[in-house]
Design a protein that fits this description.
Blueprint: H1 17-43, E1 51-53, H2 60-71, H3 77-84, E2 105-107, H4 114-131, H5 137-149, H6 156-168, H7 176-182, H8 219-226, E3 235-240, E4 243-247, H9 250-262
Antiparallel strand pairs: 1-2, 3-4
């Protein structure tokens, strides 16, 4: 009698409906991770912004911070690149790109570096300046002050004329915007102590223009600085938004300043761009 062993086949386990649902969810999670995470690992970090927009009037330091953020780089990376990248700047700039980081929207891709981005900004500035017929570093410096001081584009030409008129008469510019640049701040209020700081950007103490632009001006400010309208204005103050008063009469200017001060919350607050 032969020994016959019978193999009993056990039924294969089957996933329950809940088990199938869990499996589908897990597969979906894995697909999402593969699509989102893996490409970032190959790019060496988080996904970059697709573009970087620089508004008119931003200082170079602000542009550097925005570039670092858009490129997902450590703080200070673009500022360092600005000191080491050869840029097409006028000799007067002495390698400082302030005023030549043209306000515009710049595309960013995986090959964009701080050096390439800064180079594109400066090249754009040079192209625009050529379009506007501006070849003078002095004009860019004036435009940067106009950009910071004017309450609205319609006032930019008059602000530029005030600057030209004061320079022609040998008067100090006495612009709060240049003090703000020296103090790395933005405020409407300037104290008497502020006007005494030791800085070449203190246009209360030093006659003439500051040594560099104080921001990166846009097209309106550049065109205003290049061709300001005729006028004898020597003073101006923005009494309230949309109401900038220009005059050649100092007593009238003081009256406008008093009106501005009366409208401020603090009795000691003052803003007199030119006094």
């Amino acid at each position: 009698m032969s020994d016959v062993r019978r193999t009993v086949r056990r039924p294969r386990p089957r996933l329950t409906r809940t088990g199938r649902l869990i499996l589908v969810v897990c597969l979906c999670v894995l697909v999402i991770l593969a699509v989102v995470i893996v490409p970032r690992l190959f790019r060496g970090g988080p996904e970059r912004a697709a573009k970087l927009t620089i508004p008119e009037g931003r200082r170079a330091t602000q542009v550097y911070v925005a570039a670092d953020k858009a490129l997902r780089l450590a703080d200070g990376t673009t500022a360092k690149a600005a000191r080491t990248t050869p840029l097409s700047l006028p000799d007067e700039a002495k390698g400082n790109p302030e005023g030549y980081l043209f306000p515009a929207t710049y595309p960013i891709d995986r090959d964009t570096t701080p050096a390439s981005l800064l180079t594109t900004m400066v090249e754009t500035a040079n192209l625009r300046l050529a379009d506007y017929g501006i070849a003078s570093y002095r004009t860019v410096v004036i435009a940067s002050i106009v950009q910071a001081e004017a309450d609205r584009p319609g006032d930019m030409g008059k602000v530029a004329r005030v600057i030209d008129n004061r320079l022609a008469k040998g008067m100090p510019l006495q612009m709060d915007s240049t003090l703000n640049y020296a103090l790395d701040r933005s405020t409407l209020h300037t104290s008497h102590a502020d006007t005494k700081i030791d800085s070449p950007y203190n246009t209360y103490e030093h006659r003439g223009l500051p040594p560099t632009p104080i921001d990166n001006p846009g097209a309106d400010a550049l065109n205003a600085a290049a061709a300001p309208p005729p006028g004898d204005w020597l003073y101006f103050v923005t009494v309230k938004p949309g109401d900038t008063r220009f005059t050649a009469d100092y007593q009238e200017h003081l009256k406008n300043v008093r009106e501005f001060n009366a409208g401020q919350q603090s009795p000691t607050a003052r803003r007199s761009p030119v006094t």
